[in-house]
Amino acid sequence: MSNVTILKNKQNKPYVPSNLTIVLIFSLLMLGLCVIGSLALGSRVVTMDGLIDGLFHQQVQSYEADVVRKRISRTVFSLLCGAALGVAGALMQAVTRNPIADPSILGVNMGASLFVVCGMAFWHITTAGQYIWLALAGAAVTAVFVFGIGSMGRGGATPIKLVLAGAATSAALSSLVTAIMIPRSTVMDQFRFWQVGSVGSGTWSSISLFLPFLIIGILIAVLSAPALNALALGDEAANGLGVRTGTLRFAAAMAGVLLCGAATALAGPIGFVGLLSTHVIRLLLGPDVRYIIPLSAIAGAIILTVSDITGRLIGSPGELEVGVVTAFIGAPILIILAMKSKVRSL
Question: What are the transmembrane regions (predicted)?
């Protein structure tokens, strides 16, 4: 079944993957297990009684119940960041028609990092609210720059040109970040903990800051999904079907930047979540973006939460930052995908 604006079967009804119900139920079950695992596992493993007391019996005061209550905000924050990165990856792959597009691969994460470190060094910012606006600005500028460079020359924005432009931009921005930090030891100490990528600092305050960006980004993504199916046929075919490709690309790209930038500002530059989640869902359900976007949100939440749990268990009694875990898992998978797909467009 090929990509079309609205996939339909022989009865001219919207196409629905035959295994959609199974995938959805399995994904929700996995999500529930991830929530339980995130609340119960870590440097201190909580018993089922302690888990129930922490969640449902507020009057009970015990060490295990307190541990569970402190982990609730971290778990919610992990789920929301994972969902945002999953949808951002799906949007970037659809907009660029690049099967290995991801905020970290296209340099968007590093652009957000550069603006954040500039804020730390030159404007002495320290709050999450300030991080968000700087990260969004950096992500947006970098996305426009990478797409502009990748669009130059013959053939326009091909997948290989976008990946190369993103890699070169990331390398250049990384050098700038290092150059700014080296002479400023206090900035280096502040930035290095943020740069690794972690959901351990997730609080109800940061969640409340993040929610508006998440809701707006996912809403735009869902509304853009049918038109993004048409874009997969190429710009000429999409224009023939009445899609304003320029407006669509701008809206979908800005939604991806909004989701990625806000998540990066609060959790640090966590890579490969969008790449992994979108490929898993596409493998299970096919190319229809209408299903890829919402299921990528669930898959992204699962991947990031599992990575967080893994980091806590491996690094016990401390923890291994989630950005390290996702990079360790994602880098080999990226190499395999690139080798198999030969960086073909979607």
Answer: 20-41, 72-92, 104-125, 131-150, 162-182, 202-228, 248-271, 291-310, 322-339
3-state secondary structure of 288: coil
Residue 128 lies in a domain: yes
* 259 pLDDT above the threshold of 80: yes
**How far is CA 42 from each of CA 77, 82, 249, 250, 306, rounded to the nearest angstrom?**
16, 19, 42, 41, 12
Residue 95: the pLDDT is 85
How far apart, in whole angstroms, are the C-alpha atoms of residue 157 and residue 149? 8
* Secondary structure (DSSP) of 187-214: HHHHHHHHHH--STT--HHHHHHHHHHH
How big is the chain, counted in residues? 346
pLDDT at 78: 94
Query: Is the overall model pTM greater than 0.90, yes or no?
Result: no
Residue 199 lies in a domain: yes
Is residue 206 a contact partner of residue 265, using CB atoms and an 8 Å limit?
A: no
Count how many domains the chain has: 1
Tokens coding 117: 């470190």
Tokens 């360790």 locate to: 328
**Percentage of the residues of the chain whose pLDDT score is greater than 90:** 26
The Cα–Cα gap between 334 and 313 comes to 25
Place of tokens 């989640």: 277
